[in-house]
Amino acid sequence: MTSLLPPAQKNWWAVPVGRQEIIWIAIALVWCLIMFFMMPLWHMYGNQNIPTEAYKVTPAKYQAKVNEMIEKYKVREETAMKIPVVAPPDGADVYLLARLWQWYPMLELKKDVTYRLHLNSIDWNHGFSLQPVNINIQVVPGYEMVLNITPNKAGEYTIVCNEYCGIMHHAMLGKIWVKE
Amino acid sequence: MADENNTDEREEDENISPWQQMIDNPFLLLFIGVAMPTVFYTLWGVMEIASIPVAPY
Amino acid sequence: MAQFRQCPDTGLFFHKEAENLMKANAVAGVVCLLIGGILALLVVLTRWPAIHLLPADSFYMVLTAHGVCALIFWMIFFEMAILYFAGSTLLRSRLATPRWAWAGFVMMVIGAVMTLAAIFGGKSSVMMTSYVPMRAEPHFYLGLVIFAVGALIGCFVYLGTLVVAKNEKTYEGSVPLVTFGATTACIIAIFTIASGAEILIPTYLWSIGYISHIDPAMYRLIWWALGHSSQQINVAAHVAVWYLIAGVIFGARPMSEKVSRAAYLLYIFFLQLASAHHLLTDPGLSVEWKLFNTSYAMYLAVLASMIHGLTVPGAIEVAQRKKGLTNGAFEWLRKAPWGNPVFSSMFISLVGFGFLGGISGVVMGTEQISIIIHNTIYVPGHFHATVVIGTTMAWMGLTYLLIPVLFRRKMIFPQAAKLQPYIFALGMSMVAVFHMAAGTLGVARRHWDMGFAGNPLGFEYPATAYLLMGIAGIGGVIGVIGGALFCVIAVGSLVFGEKLQKEAGLLQSFGVPLADSAYTNEKPARLPMAPAEAVEADHGESGFEAPGTFILAMVLLVSFVIYYFINWKYLSEVWGIS
């Protein structure tokens, strides 16, 4: 029961370590360093990195910005609730708003074009979960996040909310269409 | 019984590596274990969030 | 005068006051596990798409209670028992200030009841994380604060006991490795609880109107210093339990005190930084902050876990080989006591934590890979592998060990107990694996209806996702059966198990002291140092003491590497984000 007893030597730090442990520690350390450096390398060479651009913003200001964009670029309305669909020009700032229990407005984007997508919630925490590509971003109220996104495939995409936000959380959806 | 061992404890203490002395000192470890995440995770994180600028519009 | 009794089977000494505290905390923990398990069944049956049992409001209430009960109350109560065991029993010391320890215990019970009352009142379905500005009833937060303060008292009683043991020279040399592991857990717990107080006290004041605003991003930052670190207490504690069980069952000697303790030291330094795992897709935190924290400063805490992953089974292998089980690489493992639930629980905990929980945890905690995993049901898949297969199974094994030693009762249903770890592990592995798989298809966590009932916009997850959630549901039911079996055996043994000592009555199983006749006033002899190791020939090939373990470790590494790069491949296929 020696793991339940004090070490056999008072000066146990001085007891030499066996070869097996040393080899394993060396291998594991190398692997740990590889994993660590993968992250900065991906920042340099990879295409999927969460940017740090973010702003503090009030719900009223953000809502105004969203409305301004809708006025400029609205192309049609969808569903009985007449949710506006916005087709912003290439490279434009796109303001997407999360609220109980809706992603607002809907977007129509072009393939291989980069947009500045702004995300913010005007009430509680929400989770931007773009399906079926499976991109997941936390949306925190009061903080506007800016992502440079480049859709790489045409099709219809759905934004699911994947941060619990109350009783109708499960019905909180949005749409993005990507055209060729 | 305790007295018998006192002398050899003192003799051996001199050779004990500082690493072992640290590991054998729970209060020093407590200090390090609280200070590390407080500085690197909490304080650094709070500073980052606090320095997020207000939206330019 | 401190009173002690010595367990005739193991030779362990129990201080009267410490013994009762261990019992009370362990029993309170198992009660919380029982409640958490019943709630788990309701969660499972709702997320199983074909059954979809509860309506949305009850589902979120039950899910909140399940998280709080299983992840906080069960874990921390049991951890208190482990601290008192490691501090008092293993060091043959009296417990410092038992009255404070009881006060802490009472606070924990009051806090737990208060928070559960708030949740079942129906107006606090805010999930365990309770992100502001979503608001729970004030006593939801207050209960958690009271619970945390109670646990904090327990931590200081443990540290006090270390001081008492040192001053009264109850042991020679350094503390045993298991006690050192418990110290690590205690240190992490103190940071965790302090962070909890830092965020939950203001949130409580906000909920009663004294503070007008809590910043949601700050809340998430500091809450996760509580939420994630509390799981790191479990890691440190269950690794200590692995060493403990390896020592008790096999007489295993740590392969190297230096290596094992240095690995714990890395935990103390770096493990808690990983709270950043939860904030990788949050706004505004810099890349430097994310990289440093999410990688535990270059994965040094992962290195520590990989070290324990070698040294725990390695110590068992060395001990088994000494007994003559030297054929091939794995005779030591084949002929291990697989029918003994103490061992099987512990070993499954070790393997499950490493392969399922550990690998998935590191992968999803990679800064960019978090994009394809954050808040999907992959996350619950991962942490059911760490805290259920890892921690809960380690503690089930310890409970089987303690029923005769601490509670002085013979275990009932020994045949069922043999099977219990396997049933539980099978079910929970299915939950973990199939939730993770469904998560890669985008299924959201904390979500009542994957069919999005009530929304006019059409969207359906692929049929495979429904299938995976269904299989996870079956696994969940099997897991609940395994968990129920554990509760029946554990509680049943305390009530109906044959008494191994005449004083061990019914009330004595639940924290009432044994009669004085069980104890002596004699101070236990000083805890001696482990006997010096005889120099002997190498057992394995080329100077490797534990070649079988090394092979297992390499299998883990290869799986790790492959799975890690597969996820980068998946990530590279999604839309460009910069």
What do you see in this structure?
The complex is a heterotrimer of chains A (180), B (57) and C (578). Chain A is an alpha+beta fold and 180 residues long. Chain A contains two helices and twelve strands, in the order αβαβββββββββββ. Chain A folds into two domains: 17-45; 54-179, Immunoglobulin-like (Sandwich), CATH 2.60.40.420. Chain A has helices at residues 19-45, 59-73; strands at residues 54-56, 74-78, 83-86, 93-99, 102-104, 106-110, 115-121, 126-131, 135-139, 143-150, 155-161, 173-179. In chain A, the strands form two sheets. Chain A has a seven-stranded mixed β-sheet. A five-stranded mixed β-sheet of chain A has the order 1-10-7-4-5, covered by helices on one side. In chain A, strand 8 (126-131) and strand 9 form a beta hairpin. The radius of gyration of chain A is 24 Å and the shape is elongated. The N and C termini of chain A lie far apart (69 Å). Chain B is mainly alpha-helical and 57 residues long. Chain B has a domain at 13-50. Chain B has three helices and no strands. Helices cover 66% and strands 1% of the residues of chain C. In chain C, strands 1-2 form a two-stranded antiparallel ribbon. Chain C starts with a strand and ends with a strand. Chains in contact: A-B, A-C, B-C. At the A-C interface, helix 1, strand 8, strand 9, strand 10 and strand 11 of A face helix 2, helix 6, helix 7, helix 9 and helix 15 of C. Strand 10 (143-150) of chain A pairs antiparallel with strand 3 of chain C.
